[in-house]
Specification:
Length: 139
């Protein structure tokens, strides 16, 4: 379903692993651990939660990703910006349909976004960085 794909593009849910990250990435890694909460919420929201819950989770996720992108190291800054833009697009579609997941799922703009290989690549790049530099692993 489209909701699951949107959740996957966000950052993929991360869980704490070993490692503390390098000194140059430590501050970002601390932020990434905080963003983990938002990404877990994205993974756990479902169509039975209703429009307000969906809106809250995705608006919070967009804000968290924008904050992370501001502090991201140059290696993944553009990837995090792409992911934040993807969630922003999802939120624009949500606003257009009052976050009614069934209406959103039939929106051609959402289908186009979900087929965007750049978002998949961005998510993979961020996940790789989080694993290598921050000790966070995908769940």
């Amino acid at each position: 379903m489209a909701l699951g794909a949107a959740a996957a593009l966000a950052l993929t849910a991360c869980s704490s692993g070993g490692g503390s990250g390098s000194s140059s990435s430590g501050s970002f890694c601390d932020l990434a651990k905080d963003v983990e909460t938002q990404m877990n919420a994205v993974d756990n929201v479902g169509e039975t939660d209703g429009p307000e819950a969906l809106k809250t989770v995705f608006v919070d996720a967009e804000n968290a990703l924008k904050q992370a992108a501001k502090k991201a190291p140059s290696e993944i800054k553009s990837d995090l910006n792409a992911l934040a833009d993807g969630i922003g697009t999802f939120n624009s579609i949500g606003k257009k349909h009052d976050y009614d997941i069934m209406k959103m799922a039939s929106d051609p703009e959402l289908a186009k976004m979900m087929e965007n290989d750049k978002l998949d690549t961005a998510a993979e790049n961020v996940q790789k960085y989080l694993e290598t530099e921050c000790g966070l692993t995908g769940s």
